[in-house]
Amino acid sequence: MAKMYHTQMEAARLGVVTPELEAVAQKEKRTVEELLALMAAGKVVIPANPGHRGLDPNGIGSMLTTKINVNLGVSRDVADYDAEMDKVMDAVNLGTHAIMDLSSHGNTQPFRRKLCTECPAMIGTVPVYDAVIHYQRDLGTLTARDFIDVVRLHAEDGVDFVTLHCGITRNTIAQIKGNARKMNIVSRGGSLVFAWMSMTGEENPFYEYYDEILDICREHDVTVSLGDACRPGCLADASDICQIDELVRLGELTRRAWAKDVQVMVEGPGHVPLNQVAANMQIQQTLCLGAPFYVLGPLVTDIAPGYDHITAAIGGAAAAMNGAAFLCYVTPAEHLALPNREDVRQGIIASRIAAHAADIAKGVPGARDQDDRMGDARRALDWEAQFAEALDPETARAIRDSRAPEDDHSEACSMCGKFCAVRSMNKALSGEIIDIL
């Protein structure tokens, strides 16, 4: 029997329950009817290119559990694809939901295809990064057709979502020149599109030929992630006219994608003061009609290089609590270097903490169950149960074992020993003598 639909959104609008939607409904403890309505309205997406074999599908939407993305990929200075694949599998084992391949050196296609064959997480790319590498020509010599053909290539390779910087236009050039931004454009893709427009005098091809790109995405059920070229790169630029003007345009582009049954996410900031995070989420939900919001952090201070996984987790928790659906992790290497395996691990753990905290705050069904089990395990001083519920059991066990108390190891830890409040309360409530000395 021929498939009745091209995209997950079209299937939802036809009332067809796809295997991917059924799998997501089970994970999220939602009915298929609830998910069908949310997907038909564009408020939930399931990025699932049929060419991605072995995909473990996940839904992205503010009313679902908050999802985590990990950026990986080689650069000219660190170009070991085997090491990147090790990071990919580390990320999957640590519970990440998506991998974005941001490789900017060498022959990128074999690695991209390997990801779409072997990695169960959703795979995303930024085609504009790959254009110069794919054609081995300088940016200014590329044509609009070259950019569109790379989008098609990535779709054919099996990627589930693509970041496209469609919202930046020639009008943005005048805005950037006239509005004295402290950091100008910090989006790598946005800066490439800006530079191409400046050199060629032409309009942004991702904006000018948007309908053709949507046709490619519809054919392969590739979710469009509308990139925020003008996201703020420092607190001083947060919520300025460049950022908001682009967001208005992204809302218009969201409507155009939905008209073709193409799934859409909208990307967001960036560096944002903590007191502006909630407002940014609310503005996006209004302008983009509830399309899932995908945020980088946001980072709530500019002065913590080496610790930006923490600044991003603070902002990410606030963002997700107020409507963001998808958090792009940030590692301790942000602003400094390509992340190594330990940086990746630290970034994922920080993002997962932020996502989980937000899910509890917004009342996602079942979000607090693990915390309640941890409370029971701590009251019983059941260390094995505590490790089982820990987000990172290996680290928790290693810390305890490295600093175990000399006596009473089965009950207390080396912080309090026999002064342990939990131990004292358990004994007092059961009528036992509380021995300290």
From TrEMBL:
Enumerate the GO terms in the molecular function aspect.
4 iron, 4 sulfur cluster binding; phosphomethylpyrimidine synthase activity; zinc ion binding
| Binding-site positions, substrate | N71, M100, Y129, H165, S187, R188, G189, D228, A229, C230, R231, E267, Y294
Q: Its Enzyme Commission number?
A: 4.1.99.17
Give the GO terms filed under biological process for this record.
thiamine biosynthetic process; thiamine diphosphate biosynthetic process
Cofactor binding note from Swiss-Prot or TrEMBL: Binds 1 [4Fe-4S] cluster per subunit. The cluster is coordinated with 3 cysteines and an exchangeable S-adenosyl-L-methionine.
- Whether S-adenosyl-L-methionine counts among this entry's keywords is yes
Which top EC class applies here?
Answer: lyase
Q: Which InterPro entries match?
A: ThiC, ThiC/Bza_core_dom, ThiC/BzaA/B
The catalysed reaction is: 5-amino-1-(5-phospho-beta-D-ribosyl)imidazole + S-adenosyl-L-methionine = 4-amino-2-methyl-5-(phosphooxymethyl)pyrimidine + CO + 5'-deoxyadenosine + formate + L-methionine + 3 H(+)
Superkingdom, taxonomy of origin: Bacteria
User: What does this protein do, in the record's words?
Assistant: Catalyzes the synthesis of the hydroxymethylpyrimidine phosphate (HMP-P) moiety of thiamine from aminoimidazole ribotide (AIR) in a radical S-adenosyl-L-methionine (SAM)-dependent reaction.
Name the family. Belongs to the ThiC family.
Protein name (Swiss-Prot/TrEMBL): Phosphomethylpyrimidine synthase
